[in-house]
Amino acid sequence: MIGQMVMRNLVHRPLRTAVSVLAVAVEVTLVIVIVGLTSGMLQETAKRIEGVGADIMVQPPSASVLLAFSGAPMPITIGNRLEQIRDVQAVAPVLLQFNANGVEMVYGIEPESFRVVSNGFVFLAGEDMSGPNDMLVDDWAARSKNLKPGDTYRLLDHDFRVSGIVEHGKGSRIFVNLATLQELSGAREKASLFFLKCTDSRSTEAVMEEIRAILPRYEIRPLKDFLSLMTSTTIPGLNAFVTCMIALAVAIGFLVIFLSTYSMVIERTRDIGVLKSIGASQAYITRALLSETALICSGGIVLGIAASYATRALFVSALPTLSILITADWIVRAALIALAGGLLGASYPAWMANRKDVIEALAYD
User: Fold this and answer.
1) Which of 20, 158, 176, 261 lies at a 20 to 30 A Cα distance from 123?
2) 329-336, long-range: CB within 8 Å, 24+ apart, which pairs?
3) Which residue stretches of the chain have pLDDT < 50?
4) What is the pTM (predicted TM-score) of this model?
């Protein structure tokens, strides 16, 4: 009985039902895509940094785990001190420069030392850097920018020659000569971080302790644990941003469901009076209204999940270097958030419907 009545009510106002379903779908899509974008980018970045193959990363005091926030305050001569530590096989200085035009991080490297620390690049086309104006790009960046060996690419107001295309997963997507990037960024004889390769991975902790004694207050991080560090809770302000965006999405769904249910109750005042006059209880009326809301939310959740995958596919096709991680965990969370918000939005109109006087409701025009 309730099921038939709910379906007829939804079909009776198809436009209002469609708008409500769409609002819930937007809410679910926003939650899944925003969380997926932040977690996907963080995890993908962390995996690329771990993929460098080094054992230890040394950063200046108070440096952020998010390398985009790092500058170049360390003298490159620190590398000489690090090389003298027992069990250190190689040290590779890296200068970081954020390219705002391409929204990407550029690595300035010494090809020889970086090759030792990272076990070298896997070349898919072209060759290694041989001149000060040569650059390497990984396969994802090459596909995104339509680059091939021999092309000229303008970066940081400077023309570089693409010497080779390498397999992705070695920290950055773009690599240039360290000395060249130091000149372009005004950071002569400076480095943003040092990658260290130990002679034996089992000696990593001992090497880290010795570095801490030589460079107190510096950030010394083992790369094997880097993925666990790259979460929204460890990045300043990111967790607050994600929370605010989820709250905004919930507010959209809540308000639309509230207004839809409220107008539905006003519109059906006479119908509610008829139900009460033939003996319908308050629980029956509440259950009918909340069942209608739950059905709308269910339709919106299914549509929102489908829209999330479609949005990810659209973004990735337009920006191949973008990473959006959609997980079953956040699909369930988004569904529960949407359902709870919708039922909460329908609670007051349902309470208002139960308080209507039968005589007044039947006389309502």
Assistant:
1) 158
2) 330/31, 330/32, 330/35, 330/36, 331/32, 331/305, 333/31, 334/27, 334/28, 334/31, 334/32, 334/301, 334/304, 334/305, 335/28, 335/301, 335/305
3) none
4) 0.72
